[in-house]
Amino acid sequence: MSFTELANARLETIGFRSTAPRRAVLRAIESASAPFTVEELLESLPGVGRATVFRTVKLLHELDLLCRVPLEDGSIRYQLSEGEHHHHLVCRRCGQFTEFTDLELDARIQEQARAHGFTLEGHAVELYGVCRSCAAGGL
Ligand SMILES: [Zn+2]
Ligand SMILES: [Zn+2]
Ligand SMILES: [Zn+2]
């Protein structure tokens, strides 16, 4: 199943009808070759309303279908998620995110929240640096 079909199906299960503009947003996301900002996505979809693009991106992130990574320049970039909850290694040079999971880290984060009487609703862990291929000098 393509990302567009999968995302459409997931959105319908939570009550969002499949509309032509929404499918256009999904196809644009599926064909993005690099992590993108919502502004870049908007520019590539001149016929689609701003609210539809913003809402679709937010829903896809909530469904764990899209990764959302804040960069050090203040922008937020998105890329297709490979699956369930995970964390990111973010390369400062090429901008690619690599996913990793660490259940022990997740358990420690939950313990910290509990110890502070804090009701945890989510967390994000981003590691910033230089990826293996950039460190090796190539791209
Ligand atoms: Zn991710
Ligand atoms: Zn890199
Ligand atoms: Zn986690």
From TrEMBL:
Compartments (UniProt record): Cytoplasm
Keywords (A to Z) from UniProt: Cytoplasm, DNA-binding, Metal-binding, Repressor, Transcription, Transcription regulation, Zinc
InterPro entries found in the cross-reference section: FUR, Fur_C, WH-like_DNA-bd_sf, WH_DNA-bd_sf
Location, primary (coarse class): cytoplasm
Keyword Repressor in record: yes
SUPFAM superfamilies referenced in this protein's UniProt entry, alphabetically: Winged helix' DNA-binding domain (SSF46785)
Family per record: Belongs to the Fur family.
Subunit structure: Homodimer.
Protein name in UniProt: Fur family transcriptional regulator
